[in-house]
Amino acid sequence: MPLYLLAQATREHGITVIATGEGADELFWGYDLFKELVLRQQAEHDETALERLDALYPYLSAPGASRGPVWRRFFAEAGAADDPLLSHQTRAAATGAVKAFYRDEVARELIEDDSTQRLRADLPASFDGWGALERAAYLEVRTLLEPYLLAAQGDRVAMAHGVEGRYPFLDHRVFEYAARLPQERKLDAALHDKIALRELAATVLPSGIAQRPKQPYRAPAVAPFFADDSPAWIEEALAPDSLRDSGLFDDRSVAGLVRRCRSGRATGMREGMALVGILSTQLWHEQFCGAARTAYPEETAEPKVFIDMDVKSALEGVT
Amino acid sequence: MTDVKAVSADPRDDVVRKEISEFIKENFLYMRPDHVLQPDDDLTDFALVDSLGFVELVEEVQNRYGIDVQDVEITEQNFSSVNAIVRFVGSKRAH
């Protein structure tokens, strides 16, 4: 949403082509995820390092994002030190809140078909020899930038306003240069990030911009979907018959979550994550797998298009 | 329940037991509508309280009872069930 609005404002200023920074935080280790990993690693021989986690996410204030021992423990216990996916296990734990809402059959199936196992199997052969932060950067590019950010937060929202984004950090020469930089030129033990990039920026930009801490784009996860004027398709997508259509989530469990969301009681990170996961899966399913529940006028006017899979018999018909 | 009551010397324990049970029902148990929560149920057993949920639970205990939970106290022994939490809150009050 923030980038959609940004693209809209860009277009209103008559700008149709922009250079945009996708990739900079992955290549020069600007995301908090990398700092979190540094602290988790330091904590292996210095437990006080975890105390610095308290200051790392100042923008998180929801229940379940407390400061102090239990919050630190969440990070300390998310994944073994030698786990190749160590850096991303905290994210897996947070987004995994949705799993509690799976139907039993689905949950059982997904235990056997674990997506993290597929990711592990697909890692480059040399992965084990990389540094922990290099692995984290690779996983960030492979699991978020490439399959999600570039399309969903980049091209799609920009093109919605006819704005074309160009991505200088994804130029292969920039990419290769950044990948070869020594670790201390990107992120140091004191958690200064994007060091080489900030030095370059300081030669052309005021220091207030060149040294500005990263501010993530954030949007509330629950409240906008349950406001008085929220569109009807939200509750439709979460209704018991829609849930039974898709067959993925337990309709009674989701009904409980929806009740809590509607009454403003689902204020924590866990339930927010679960709601967004369930709602987007439901919409995705409706769009691509289900019978369209909402017949939009332009859709009903379109001819039905299908692919004739029975090529052989069609050829036989000709001869 | 009678056994549990029998070992509860402090009547405040029953209040804590009731409040924590209510909190878990309200915040987690709606996800398992067929499950009837027993005070000795292992909360992690049936995937009810995951790692982020555990943070919420400890947070609630800290805030509701004004207890400062130390790192070494965040253990399975202290937080694995409603009764474990009751015992933990009781022991913190005694100090």
Question: Care to describe what's here?
Answer:
- The complex is a heterodimer of chains A (319) and B (95).
- Helix content of chain A is 51%, strand content 2%.
- By secondary structure, chain A is mainly α.
- Chain A has two domains: 2-84 and 123-210, no CATH class; 223-294, no CATH class.
- In chain A, strands 1-2 form a two-stranded parallel ribbon.
- In chain A, helix 3 runs antiparallel to helix 8 (132-159).
- The longest helix of chain A is centred in the middle third of the chain and has 28 residues, at 132-159.
- Chain A is globular.
- Mean pLDDT of chain A is 87; it is low at 296-319.
- Chain B is 58% helix and 0% strand.
- Chain B contains five helices and no strands.
- Chain B has helices at 2-7, 11-27, 51-65, 76-79, 82-94.
- The mean pLDDT of chain B is 86.
- The chains are: A mainly alpha (319), B mainly alpha (95).
- Chain A binds chain B through residues 63-66, 68-74, 77-78, 93-94, 96-97, 99-101, 107, 250, 252-253, 256-257, 259-260, 265, 268-270, 273, and chain B through 26-27, 30-33, 47-48, 50-56, 58-59, 62, 69-71, 74.
Salient structural properties:
heterodimer, A: 319 residues, mainly alpha, two-stranded parallel sheet, 17 helices, 2 strands, globular, B: 95 residues, Non-ribosomal Peptide Synthetase Peptidyl Carrier Protein, Chain A
Looking at CATH, which topology of chain B would you report? Non-ribosomal Peptide Synthetase Peptidyl Carrier Protein, Chain A
Indicate the proportion of strand residues of chain B: under 5%
* Structural class based on helices, strands and sheet pairing of chain A: mainly alpha
Global geometry of chain A: globular
Distance between the amino and carboxyl termini of chain A: 55 Å
Intertermini distance of chain B:
27 Å
How many structural domains can be distinguished in the coordinates of chain A?
2
Compute the number of helices of chain B: 5
Helix content of chain A: 40-55%
